[in-house]
Specification:
Number of helices of chain B: 10
Radius of gyration of chain A: 21 Å
Number of strands of chain B: 2
Largest interface: A-B, 10 and 14 residues
Strand content of chain B: under 5%
Helix content of chain B: 55-70%
Helix content of chain A: 55-70%
Largest sheet of chain B: 2 strands, antiparallel
Oligomer: heterodimer
Number of strands of chain A: 7
Chain lengths: 263, 328
């Protein structure tokens, strides 16, 4: 399954890497940039079947850069898992679920990976749990649609100088109720966008945002954390154990654009 | 000059240490301490003890006071708490003071622990003695003179004992200096972090440079001790071998007193099992037979407290308290 949802943020996030790839004298990169997302996906799938997981991950990543899709992200996670890059794999599967919460394969892979690597899942607040029930853009559509429906049903009869019918009032009330119910989910989407995952092995969690900082603890790849704020090339994160700083490239956000916006 | 603090009153205190501080600038900062004291003077007069710190600023001030009072462990905890609050303004001065605290801890550990130079000299002296004893043992083993062999044996044993004691002392000194190195490396990191966060903080930069020089000296000393330790271990092994050979060559009647039970293995494992030693026989007796009922009692006795019933009271049963309010 391939969806083009949330394409802009991912494209913005991957743009520097795409430029880097353009400059790199790699044959694959040059060929990949000329290729379409579908071609890249097929190339990745072929490499994956041939057990060339490095090439597969590269192709899937480039395909996702051009066209973010839950299925491609899931495959990217599989390829990264085969490369023993747990952090990257978990991030890819979480991004797959972010785009499509109905992707059961990604969910099962996440569960298996966390059980195998003995990692904990991010702790979600109730409104964040609600936000996982539907794809993130659906909540925006639902909120917008219900609000305009409520406004329309409430205001249009008056503007058209007609008498309000009972069904119109009932529809307005129902739409308003749906709008109000979707607000916590929208808030949950916003807060969930700040959840990230440690990418590297033994990522040091620093007490201060400095090069020679004291190390509070070390994070395993795939450990969840919440982005709080950034300072220079460091980001302040909260994990289940402590609050501290990591380097920006040591943390992958589920929704990378959210990090840029917060920072 | 002290690290600048914006919009907050700060009083500085300069302390000179007698040791290691030829060029080390020891400034401690009381972050708003004078203001706090001024505002809280009446409150302090009313309360016998100052309240434990609660806010990051209070933690910082407490840490600074503890540093001034040389309560280094407490100061470290307080300053770390202040840093953990992630307050931007507190970070550079807290790091600076934390550097001072950890440097001070290292100095204290150095003072308490064995000194490097005498320990090293003792080790070198023991190594020289071992060399001489080895030479004598080689010469004695080359001939058949029994008296020379006994003398070499006695000297070898003495040198080995001294070598062991010196080795242990060097090992202890190595551990102590290693701990100091860890402390100072952390302190240097703190000063560097303070300088990184506040590029105008020349004191922090200066202190980190001085500390790096101290660390370099300490590393040299550690390396020297490690080399000495390795040399002593080698010599100890050779000496043990020579003493063993001498012991094999000297007939039992000619052995000096105390030689029989004074093997190296005995010294190494004074409480360990002897070669050929076996576990003693178990106590003689008959197996106790238990009836199922007795076994049940025994098992009940070992059960956890959750199933153990409390004894009933002997007096009259008391009525429960009357509750005027609903029980929810």
């Amino acid at each position: 399954m391939k969806t083009a949802d949330m394409g802009l943020w991912l494209l913005a996030f991957r743009l520097p890497s795409a430029i880097g790839l353009l400059l790199a004298p790699s044959f694959l990169s040059l060929a990949a940039l000329a290729a379409s997302p579908d071609t890249l996906f097929q190339a990745g799938a072929t490499a994956y079947r041939a057990a060339d997981y490095t090439q597969a991950a590269e192709a899937f990543r480039q395909s996702v850069t051009l066209q973010p899709a839950s299925g491609t992200l899931q495959d990217l996670g599989n390829a990264e898992w085969q490369r023993h890059r747990t952090g990257e794999a978990i991030l890819a599967w979480e991004q797959a679920l972010w785009l499509d919460p109905f992707n059961d394969a990604a969910r099962q892979n996440l569960r298996f990976a966390r059980k195998t690597a003995q990692l904990e899942a991010p702790e979600l607040a109730w409104y964040e749990v609600i936000s996982t029930w539907l794809p993130v853009n659906w909540w925006a559509w639902i909120a917008g649609g219900s609000l305009w429906l409520a406004v329309g049903m409430g205001a249009l009869p008056g503007l058209l100088r007609r008498r309000k019918a009972t069904w119109q009032q009932a529809t307005a009330a129902l739409a308003l109720m749906v709008f109000l119910l979707s607000i916590p989910a929208l808030f949950g989407v916003q807060t969930r966008a700040r959840i990230g995952f440690a990418l590297q092995k033994d990522t040091p969690l620093r007490l201060t945002p400095t090069l020679e900082a004291q190390t509070l603890t070390r994070l395993a790849p795939g450990d969840p954390a919440r982005w709080l704020r950034s300072r220079g090339r460091y980001v302040l994160i909260r994990t289940s154990r402590a609050v501290g700083w990591v380097e920006q490239d040591q943390l992958g956000l589920t929704c990378p654009k959210a990090g840029k916006r917060i920072g | 000059m002290m690290p600048s603090l914006n919009h907050l009153s700060a009083s500085s205190r300069c302390a000179r240490s007698s040791h290691w501080t030829g060029a080390f600038r020891l400034w401690t900062l009381d972050f708003g301490l004078s203001t706090s004291l001024l505002l809280g003077a009446t409150a302090l007069a009313a309360t016998p003890e100052a309240a434990p710190p609660d806010t990051p600023r209070e933690f910082y001030n407490a840490g600074t006071r503890q540093l001034a009072a040389r309560k280094l462990r407490e100061a470290e905890a307080s300053l770390e708490s202040a840093l953990a609050s992630q307050k931007e303004q507190l970070r550079p001065p807290a790091l600076y003071n934390l550097g001072l605290v950890r440097f001070g801890q290292g100095v204290e550990q150095l003072k308490k622990g064995p000194a490097a130079k005498p320990t090293l000299e003792r080790g070198q002296s023991a190594a020289k003695q071992a060399d001489a004893a080895l030479h004598q043992a080689d010469e004695a083993l080359g001939g058949n003179d029994l008296d020379r062999m006994v003398a070499a044996y006695m000297r070898g044993r003495g040198a080995r004992k001294e070598l062991k004691a010196a080795t242990e002392a060097v090992r202890r000194a190595l551990q102590a200096h290693g701990a100091v190195l860890t402390r100072w490396e952390r302190a240097s990191g703190d000063f560097k972090s303070a300088a990184e966060l506040n590029s105008a903080d020349s004191d922090a930069r200066h202190n980190s440079e001085v500390l790096d020089r101290c660390i370099a000296k300490l590393v040299d000393s550690l390396r020297e001790m490690q080399q000495c330790l390795n040399g002593m271990c080698d010599k100890g092994n050779k000496l043990s071998e020579a003493v063993k050979q001498l012991k094999g060559r000297i007939p039992a009647p000619n052995m000096p007193p105390g030689a029989a039970g004074d093997d190296e293995e005995d010294e190494d494992q004074p409480f360990g099992p002897q070669p050929g030693q076996e576990e003693g026989p178990s106590k003689q007796g008959q197996e106790m037979t238990l009836s199922p009922e007795q076994a049940g009692w025994l098992l009940d006795a070992y059960k956890l407290d959750s199933e153990r019933r409390l004894p009933m009271g002997q007096g009259p049963a008391a009525d429960p308290k009357e509750r005027s309010r609903p029980t929810w």
